[in-house]
Structures are given as C-alpha cells and as structure tokens.
Amino acid sequence: MFFTRNKERRKRNREYRKELKELQKNHMPEKWDQVVNKNAKRDWLPFIKYDYNWDWGFIIETLIYKIELTKLYIKYFGNTIEEEKNKQIAEMEEAIRLYKVFEDTNFFEEEQTFTKEHTCHYIYFSEKISAFKEKEYKYILSTEKDNLIFYDLNCGVFDEEKKKAEQYAVKAGIPIEVLYDKNLIKAFGAEWDSEENQKKAKELYKQATKNEQKALDKFFLYVSKHIREWWD
Predict the structure, then answer these.
(1) What is the pLDDT, as a whole number, of residue 130?
(2) Main-chain phi, psi angles of 119, to 5 degrees
(3) Residues with Cβ within 8 Å of residue 23, at least 6 apart in sequence
(4) Which of 95, 157, 208, 215 has the CB geometry, 3.0–4.6 Å to 108, for a possible disulfide?
C-alpha cells in the first residue's frame, strides 16, 4: 500500500511538472517584450516564496502586491509628467484601499454576535462516561452568555481557546483529560433558544455574504476600469 501511494505521487509529480513547463511556455512575454528584470529576485522572492497555489486568497494578494510594486516604480522612476504620475499613484492607492476594506471588515460580526447570544454549545460524550450523563449524553459546558464553540483540542487550537475549554470543563465537573480523549467524544453541536432566532441568524448570514461579495466586486470593478492607465 505504501509503495503504491508513492508510485501514484511520483506519477502526479511528473504530470504536474510537464503541465507546469507548458504553462510557463504559454505565458512567456512576446519576444519584443522580453526584457529581463534584473531585480526580479529582489522584488518577488521575499513575497512569492510563501505561495503554495492552494488558496484563492493568494491570487488576490499577488495582484495587490503587483499593484504596490507598479506604484512604487512609477513613484521613483516614472517618466510621465508629474500630474499624470500623481493620478496613477492615487488610483492605485484607491484600489489598495478598496481591497483593504474587503480584507479588514468583518462582514459577519453581527451574525456571529447574534448567534453567540442565542445558542448554547455542547459536547456529546460516549457511553463510557456514565458518570457525566445528561439528556442523551449531552453535557453543556457553558451556562453563561459567553458560550464556547468547541474544537478538537488536539488539532491546532489556540492556547487561549484551550484554556477557556478547560475552565468550562472544571465548572461542569468534567475531568480536563476528557476534552483531549477522542475516544470519549462523539460529536459537537449547538442549540438555538428559538426557531425564530435561528431563521434570523440565517438571514443575517445571507446578507453578510452579499455585503462581502459587493466589497470584493467593487475592488475588481475599480481595477478593471483603471488598470490600463497604470503604465509608464
């Protein structure tokens, strides 16, 4: 089984490299535009070395970084008249600002706060913990408004969240080691205080998703409108 997986991995690597070479070939600039950038390593390596190709966020980050580089070049080495240069820089700064609005705004804050106020999170324990049975093995760890969304505490959860989970366990009379024993935990869940509030939360989530998309669309629309003006 081990050798089979390695064989399949090597095959995928060969196919990937083959398509990568074709991709690089197809995206080479036209011969008349093949001016080697001697500073490419200096400008791009510190940034691009963190790209692993599996996340859409880096596609946008790469575009933003490229806009930043173009703005920096035009600012210090641009040959256009000062008025035009300042206009180009201002437009690029506005594009970056619009992206920051998308990146820095928590569009789901209202929905998250509402959900936290109207739900109670719990863990379903296995039958092995008979001493902690409560309503079909449901054990509510939080009896306060400051509810806890439970994670698998063995998998990269922040120390602050682990500490909070342990505090709730102590309050509920549950040994802390239980939280780290995957064999004793069946599932995680949450209960709403009413169906009406659950429906409202869904509507808040839908609206937040729309607002987030609008902010992203606004950024791309602005870039598409001005990008052909950003050249020296």
Answers:
(1) 46
(2) -130, 160
(3) none
(4) 208
